[in-house]
Amino acid sequence: MSSLAVSDDHADTSTPAKVIQPTWVRVLHWTNAVAMVLMIMSGWQIYNASPLFNFTFSSSITLGSWLGGALLWHFAAMWLLMVNGLIYLVLGFITGRFRRKLLPITPGGVISDAKAALTLKLSHGDLSKYNSVQKLLYAGIIVVGIVIVLSGLSMWKPVQLYWLSALFGGYDIARYVHFTCMALIVAFLVIHVALAVLVPKSLRAMIIGR
Amino acid sequence: MGRLRKLLIPGVDKSLLVRDAVKAMPDPTRRRFITTGASLGALTLLSGCDVIDSSSAEELLKKVSKFNDAVQAWMFNPDALAPTFPESMITKPFPFNAYYDLDDAPEIAGADWKLEVRGLVENKKPWMLDELYKLPQVKQVTRHICVEGWSAIGSWTGTPLRDFLKLVGADTRAKYVWFQCGDKDGYNSPLDMRTALHPQTQMTFKFADEILPRAYGFPMKIRVPTKLGFKNPKYVLSMEVTNDYKGGYWEDQGYNSFSGS
Question: Please, which residues bridge with residue A24 across strands?
Fold first, then answer.
């Protein structure tokens, strides 16, 4: 916890040993990565039992090998995802990390940074400061993460949590919401991983902190 | 290998023989949850210990599923009613769904059928269909949610199970009502007592105001709108009030036992 305060408070002093990603962020990030991959791969297998669209996922990329196995994975990994996500949200708010790192997000900033990124002129000098596109994507994916958990809960408990189910327009519509959130997370994941590979020091910062 | 060769019949195409043998085998993937190397690697990270063989992964998953049973029992509110719908929203045609084709669905003669009542009940007399038809009935239009993800709204009419349990003097402090059914390969399923006593849990005799058709479980199904579809027994032959967990057709294969909605 102390490493967080140190790193974020001194974000603008650029010493070589500066902590870019504090320990708690790294631990929660990689735990989330594992949980997300388990949820997505088992979720694809569950989807295959009753597809919403005119396609199914290849069994080479699904987890659980049949519906029953996939459900066991999904309802086990959900605890990891939810507990980890909850800790992340609480710490993100009380440490002020969300406010400091993700705000403000302005349309003008997003457009100019998006242009700079597409023309390969975006600076990666200070990894502790997010550009506007990063802010938008990171804030957006947190919201998507919350919606995918809530829509999942509403499908798991459409009677006990009928109010949550009703919020999504009923069980049937919640399935589409849940699927859409998954698609957004997968799209995010593709861009996120591609950019981390393009800027290797950002990947290093998420592993060793510096 | 030599012994195997001796078993082969001369003049029979070996590959055809193998194909027939494979066909006769039970679906091997059914009980195997883990196949990909990626999943094993992920589990190693997940549990922080070296999970090499898939059976220990399965054991872990089964433990979490038991934990989920407890969580769901804790979440279960005996007064929370499943949403009901206007008749105009009934799904037509309502899907037939089972682990066998409609042609293989039990064909039960109503006149010969009787419901056996066993276990912790005062009156174990079997019930004929016309006796059951005389009990007070109520109708519900609720959503049937399948474990596969699809759902359909149907209209079911019958006697609340809790009224029947009272009538036969069941010990409602017991843990389960265990149903045995006429499906091929012997479908059975345990229902926790609190769900059995839920006001919408019903001994169903009619679908859409008509005598329950064969496709939906004639002569009697148990409609449980607070459970997934696979925990709604059809073609019921007997019910047993018991404190023992006797397992179930799907539950034993890995579906979560509580599977509450």
Answer: none
